[in-house]
Every structure is written in structure tokens, then in C-alpha cells.
Amino acid sequence: MGDIRRRGVVALGVIALTAPLTVALGTTPAQAASSCTTKTGPYQKKVEKFLGRPVDGKQSSADCKAIQAFQNKHRITPNIGYAGPVTWGVMDLMNRQKAVGKNPNKAGKCPTNKGRIACVDLTLQLSWIQDGKKLVYGPVPVRTGRKGYATRTGLKKIYWRHRDHVSSLYDTPMPYSQFFDGGQAFHSVGVSVWNPPGSHGCVNMTTTDAKKYWSLLKTGDDVFVYGRKSGT
């Protein structure tokens, strides 16, 4: 019994030390209003098409306001309405995620012989839950670790869950946390899951998706992380 207690204390100590490092960025106050740029960006036509604007490749006041609204929604900086690589990168990712449809494991990269398992595709920033070959939930967009804090790949297991977890380092809420690798966990986040550059290693989700994962998964369930996020 004493040995079990000691192991429990060590495990909680590891969580206390590592969990704060997984807190997502984006907890700063809302971005201040910025003036619109008149400059045409290198991805002008692609951004115009994504936003349903007239595609002429020339910046207009209406184009700028539409681009700026998108940037503000996802906290992309600078938020001056410029059709640059970061803004287009987010849009392109959204397009690629949408194209996956309801067959996220088409390539068979997430194991189908483990029963219920949560899959995380870092390349497409998508996650889903499957049971064998049956899709149980998802795919849903997620926000994983940024450069220097990449979400670690491989087969893992959920080892600790805390519905109302709070980072002791940043005093930042991490609701519906389900830890699967050191301090890395699934949890909800209060910013857009498309907000660059990413988390400190955790798999960020919307509150709706994090709640669903909480209800569908349990301690001991498998998690498989694969691929590579752009820029990491």
C-alpha cells in the first residue's frame, strides 16, 4: 500500500511540474483595433477566393475589412488586413481539413487493432475517436504544439484526467484535461483552435469537442499521435 501511495505522489508531482508547460497561447486581452493596409498581399487572390470576395488580386477597402475580420477572429497578427503567408496558411489548413470529410483515417495511419483510440494527425491538425475501423467522433480541428514545444508523437495512454485543471505556472484554466504524455493533454481552450503559432504541447480543442472527448474517453484509453505540424 505504501509503495502504491508513493507512486501516486510521484505521478502527481510530475503532473504539477509539467502540466503548466502545455498551456496554450492566446490568453492575452483581445487585439486592439488596427488600421487597414492598402497593400496587396502575395496571397491576395487565394484569400479573396476563400472569403468569397471578388477575385481580382487587388486590395480594396472591403477586401481589407474582410481579411482583418478573419484575422481578429483567429487572433492572427499583425491584424491589418494584409493577405500574407500566416493568414493564408490558416485558410489553407482549413481547406485541407474540410477536404478530409468523414474519413480521417483513410491512409490507415492510426491503429485499428486497439479498440477505442483517440487519433491526432499533427500534419492536418485534426483529431478523432475511433473504435477499430468505426469512426466514433470527429474529425475535429485541434491546435497542437508550436516550434520548441511540439506535441510528441507515438502511441500513448490517458493516465490522468482533471475536469477543472488549472496551470500552476500561468494560472490559466485547462478545462477537461486528459493527460496522455507527461504534461501533454487534450483540453479546451478559450481562443480559436486555428490561432497561430500553437500550444505549448497540449492538444487544444473547442469546449464542445473537449466535453465530448471527456465523455467518450477514460483513463487507460489509447492515444496515437502522428505526422508533423508545419513549422515545428
UniProtKB/TrEMBL annotation:
Transmembrane segments: none
Keywords per UniProt: Cell shape, Cell wall biogenesis/degradation, Peptidoglycan synthesis, Signal, Transferase
Pathway: Cell wall biogenesis; peptidoglycan biosynthesis
Residue ranges of every copy of the L,D-TPase catalytic domain listed in the record: 115-226
Superkingdom, taxonomy of origin: Bacteria
Classification via InterPro entries: LD-transpeptidase (IPR050979), LD_TPept_cat_dom (IPR005490), Transpep_catalytic_dom (IPR038063)
Active site annotation, chain numbering: H187 (proton donor/acceptor), C202 (nucleophile)
Signal peptide range: 1-32
PANTHER family xrefs: EXPORTED PROTEIN (PTHR30582:SF33), L,D-TRANSPEPTIDASE (PTHR30582)
Protein name stated in the entry: L,D-transpeptidase
UniProt source species: Streptomyces macrolidinus
